[in-house]
C-alpha cells in the first residue's frame, strides 16, 4: 500500500476515534463542551494521526503515536477553554500508550527504546513536578502528568529529542505570551494554558531535532 494512502487512513481513523469519544468526553467538561460538540478537536486528531504515520516506522509505533495524538487533541481544546488537563483523559492514556510502545518494542526487537522512553517519562515527570512545586501559578499537576506521557514519546526517539521537545515547549509558550501581551489580549498576571505548548513542543522535538542537532 502506498505510504500516502497509509498516512491518510491513519489520519481518518484518528479523527473518527475522536468523533466517537466526543460525547463521553464533553459530558465531563463545562466551558470546553461547546468546542468539543463543534468537533474542533477532530481536525487536531486527524493531523496528529498524520504525524503519527510520518513519525512511525512500524504499525505498532503508528498505533502508539496515534493513541497519544487523539488524547492530545482533546487536551488541547480543553486546556485552552478550561485551563486544565483532566485526569480522565491523561491517566488512561498512560497504559494505552506505553502498552502500545511495549508492543512496538516487541515488533522491533529493541527493548532499549522502551526503557529509554520510560526513563525519559520519569525524568520529565519529576522535573515538571519540581517546577510546579517552585512555581504553582505557572504549572499545574495536569501539566506534570502530561509531561510523563510526552517524555515517553520523545524518549522513544532519543535523549536529544527529549531536550529539544522540552525546550521548544517553553520557547513556544513564551513567544505566544509575548504576542498576546503585545496585542493586549492578556495582562502580565493572566493565566495562559501550558499544555498545548507542551504538546506542540513535543511535536517539534520529534520532527525537527535531527535537523537542528544533527
Write a structural description:
This protein has 214 residues and is mostly helical. It has a domain at 1-109. 82% of the residues lie in helices and 0% in strands. The chain has nine helices and no strands. The protein has helices at residues 3-26, 33-37, 40-55, 59-82, 87-108, 111-134, 141-157, 159-182, 195-213. The longest helix has 24 residues, at 3-26. The mean pLDDT is 91.
Q: Which properties best describe this structure?
A:
0% strand
Count all strands and give the number.
0
Low-confidence stretches: none
Radius of gyration, taken over Cα atoms and rounded to an integer in Å: 17 Å
Global geometry: globular
- Helical percentage: over 70%
Strand content: under 5%
Structural class: mainly alpha
Number of helices: 9
Indicate the mean pLDDT: 91
**Biggest sheet features:** none
Oligomer: single chain
H/E element sequence: HHHHHHHHH
Secondary-structure blueprint:
Blueprint: H1 3-26, H2 33-37, H3 40-55, H4 59-82, H5 87-108, H6 111-134, H7 141-157, H8 159-182, H9 195-213
Helix pairs in contact: 1-3, 1-4, 3-4, 4-5, 5-6, 5-7, 6-7, 7-8, 7-9, 8-9
Write a brief caption for the model:
Helices cover 82% and strands 0% of the residues. It has nine helices and no strands. 44% of the residues are buried.
Amino acid at each position: 500500500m502506498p505510504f500516502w494512502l497509509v498516512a491518510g487512513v491513519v489520519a481518518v481513523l484518528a479523527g473518527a476515534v475522536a468523533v466517537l469519544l466526543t460525547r463521553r468526553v464533553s459530558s465531563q467538561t463545562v466551558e470546553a463542551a461547546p468546542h468539543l460538540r463543534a468537533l474542533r478537536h477532530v481536525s487536531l486528531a486527524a493531523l496528529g494521526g498524520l504525524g503519527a504515520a510520518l513519525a512511525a516506522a512500524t504499525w505498532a509505533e503508528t498505533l502508539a503515536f496515534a493513541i497519544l495524538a487523539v488524547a492530545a487533541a482533546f487536551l488541547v481544546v480543553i486546556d485552552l477553554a478550561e485551563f486544565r488537563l483532566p485526569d480522565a483523559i491523561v491517566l488512561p492514556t498512560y497504559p494505552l500508550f506505553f502498552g502500545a510502545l511495549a508492543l512496538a518494542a516487541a515488533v522491533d526487537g529493541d527493548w532499549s527504546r522502551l526503557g529509554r522512553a520510560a526513563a525519559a517519562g520519569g525524568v520529565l515527570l519529576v522535573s515538571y513536578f519540581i517546577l510546579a512545586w517552585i512555581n504553582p501559578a505557572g504549572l499545574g499537576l495536569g501539566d506534570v502528568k502530561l509531561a510523563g506521557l510526552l517524555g515517553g514519546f520523545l524518549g522513544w526517539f532519543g535523549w536529544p529529542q527529549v531536550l529539544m521537545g522540552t525546550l521548544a515547549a517553553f520557547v513556544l509558550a513564551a513567544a505566544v505570551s509575548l504576542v498576546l501581551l503585545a496585542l493586549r489580549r492578556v495582562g502580565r498576571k493572566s493565566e495562559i494554558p501550558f499544555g498545548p505548548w507542551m504538546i506542540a513542543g513535543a511535536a517539534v522535538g520529534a520532527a525537527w531535532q535531527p535537523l537542528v542537532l544533527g
